[in-house]
Amino acid sequence: IQEKIEKSDAEGVMMQYRAMECAIRIRGLKENDGEDLRQIFADALEKFLDEKDVDWAWNIDKIYRVNSWIARQRKLPRDVVIYFVTRGVRNRVIQYSFQNKLKILGQEVVVLKEIPPKMLKVRKDYSFLVIELKRRQVQYRWDVPYGIIVTYKGERHRLNTVERARDFYDKILKTRQDQAAEQMQEQVQEGAMAIQEDPMQLSGEIIVLGKTQKQSKPQDQRQTRATV
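and the corresponding structure tokens:
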């Protein structure tokens, strides 16, 4: 029964995800009375993508602000959700926003993918792994509907449950990190032993052109300079 429930839940999330494949979310745009969001974004996207021959007003299927209790409590502008006519248009906007900042009416805004709430909630459970992957600059991408795909040391790992993600973190990331730390410690210890066992260090002798000479002690050197 539990398996059927999980399967039904995943199918429902996938339906929502497919319905949002043409949508983006804009955060940070100040609200104005009587604002014409369609025309505002049509003009902004034309400048943003430098595509004057495209009818951006026509490419916007629907656009609206999302009612948010959190935004109202924090006195923040509500997010704007835009559904484009095609997924290709949506992808162009997102890809271009990776390297360029979108400005609307002089305000810099944030461009986000529209993701089902349940999917976002589950992704938060993987935060412990994502933080470590970013720290190590390890390549990864989110799986759909749930999970994360990691490419590490030339190997591809599909972690579609939090348990598998935790197992990967403990047995691979953490283990290899501990092994690297142990190797570093061994190298440090070997270096220290080599210095201790060096006969030149122990006897105070130096080798010059194949001959052995005694090093003067610091006290003897000071006395010699004082005598001179």
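(Above: one complete record from the training split.) Residues 9-115 form a domain with the Alpha-Beta Plaits fold (CATH 3.30.70.1820).
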